[in-house]
Design brief:
- There is one protein chain.
- It contains 18 helices and no strands.
- The protein is mostly helical.
- Helix 2 packs antiparallel against helix 16 and helix 14 packs antiparallel against helix 18.
- The protein starts with 7 loop residues before the first helix and ends in a 10-residue tail after the last helix.
Length: 428
């Protein structure tokens, strides 16, 4: 089998190439979101009402959520028709170039209305590239793995989420030490421009890797899909629904544990913002370490046992989590966040990508995993903090409905995973 011929050096290069792209994607996500509220209102929308300026700045951040599904459809089609490698070079080039150009973009005072227009255009380009990046990065890792290593290989791109968070938080923390005038003048630009180093490294590694063994086999068999999306929806609709449902518990609680908790802890419980941010940072570091171990464990125990175990644990922890936060202790805030985000979420996200890749056939795998991931993220990801905030407001600041929401995401995903077979020993 072709997978057996893959050398350790090639497998390692595939892992690094997949990790770099995923890390840049999430680095940009957290970096842009933070800088948009700190600087872009003043630099790109300075002559509007302050509230309107903030809304426009936030809109520029949310643009990628609208364009990512389109980018996913475009590049997954190319990936299933032309190949994973060429598609990933294209997505990383788009994503990386747009990120660097944002760091070099003149402000409103220099080029007038073209500043916000170009900012919006660059965000759209980023969104297109990001939409196709995750699925390709995942397949680059999984399709290079031996059958008994797919869990470990598939977990590596998932580390990009937490590594991107850490890099984004660290870079902004360092730049925020500058006086405000210097931060607004050039400090915020440094992380965007320096991301070019990661982009060039990623492109250099990806250009030196051959097409994945699984895709080469499909080419040799002549089984490349003519219209991958149509074939996916016609023959693999059940797998798409499983992927969407499985994504719910991986995404919803993640945003509760990593994003919503900061606003909730500071606004409703009186925690210091630095304390809340430190708790999330520590938990993110723990998750980064735990994810590859969980992926490797799934190669022995199977994908479903780890996924189900992590999901049930998240559901059981929902009420204790908010109780620990209510103690208004920095120690218990950190402990609760580390348990939820760093330990219980880790096995779910570690096996998710591998599980997705194993329930689709090679000729539509890029399209299938991307479709399930993007739709699941749209349903449960961007909406989670909004739903949690609405529940707090609707129920007199009670955290009980939010805990029940976390449990509901688990029930949805348990129903989805119940329809999937164990795929640990399946051949790609």
């Amino acid at each position: 089998m072709a997978h057996a011929a893959v050398s350790p050096q090639t497998g390692t290069k595939a892992l690094i190439a997949s990790l770099i792209g995923s890390s840049i994607e999430w680095f940009d996500y957290f970096l842009y979101g933070t800088v948009a509220s700190l600087a872009f209102t003043k630099l790109f929308f300075p002559h509007t009402d302050p509230v309107v300026g903030l809304l426009l700045s936030c809109l520029s951040f949310s643009l990628t959520f609208f364009i990512r599904p389109l980018g996913g459809l475009i590049f997954s089609h190319i990936g299933d028709k032309v190949g994973r490698k060429k598609t990933l070079v294209l997505t990383l080039s788009l994503m990386g170039t747009a990120t660097v150009l944002i760091g070099l973009l003149p402000g409103y005072d220099t080029i007038g209305v073209w500043a916000p227009i170009l900012l919006f255009i660059l965000r759209l380009v980023q969104g297109l590239g990001i939409g196709g990046e995750w699925g390709g990065a995942l397949l680059l890792a999984v399709e290079y793995a031996r059958n008994n290593q797919r869990g470990f290989y598939g977990s590596i791109p998932q580390m990009g989420v937490t590594i991107g968070m850490l890099l984004g938080t660290l870079s902004i923390s360092l730049m925020s030490l500058l006086p405000e005038e210097q931060f607004l003048s050039w400090g915020w630009r440094v992380p965007f421009v320096l991301s070019a180093v990661l982009v060039f490294l990623g492109l250099w590694i990806r250009s030196g890797i051959d097409e994945t063994p699984a895709f080469r086999e499909a080419q040799q068999r002549g089984s490349i899909a003519k219209v991958p999306l149509a074939d996916t929806l016609r023959c693999h609709w059940k797998s798409v629904l499983i992927a969407i449902g499985a994504k719910v518990v991986e995404t919803g609680p993640f945003y509760i544990f990593s994003t919503f908790v900061i606003a909730y802890a500071t606004k409703y419980l009186g925690y210091d913002k630095v304390t809340a941010l430190n708790a999330v940072t520590i938990a993110t570091l723990v998750a980064t370490i735990a994810i590859p171990f969980m992926g490797k464990w799934s190669d022995q125990a199977g994908r479903k046992p780890l996924y189900i175990g992590g999901t049930v644990a998240i559901m059981l922890f929902a009420f204790p989590y908010f109780y620990l936060l209510s103690l208004k202790s920095a120690f218990w805030l950190t402990a609760a966040t580390v348990i939820g985000l760093g330990i219980l979420w880790a096995p779910v996200t570690a096996v998710l990508g591998t599980l997705f890749s194993e329930i689709f056939s090679t000729e539509v795998r890029y399209t299938g995993v991307t479709l399930g991931y993007q739709l699941g993220a749209a349903i449960a990801g961007g909406t989670a903090p909004l739903i949690a905030t609405w529940l707090l407001d609707a129920f007199a600041n009670s955290w009980v409905p939010v805990a029940l929401y976390i449990i509901l995401t688990g029930l949805v995903s348990l129903a989805a995973i119940g329809a999937a077979r164990e795929t640990k020993d399946a051949s790609l």
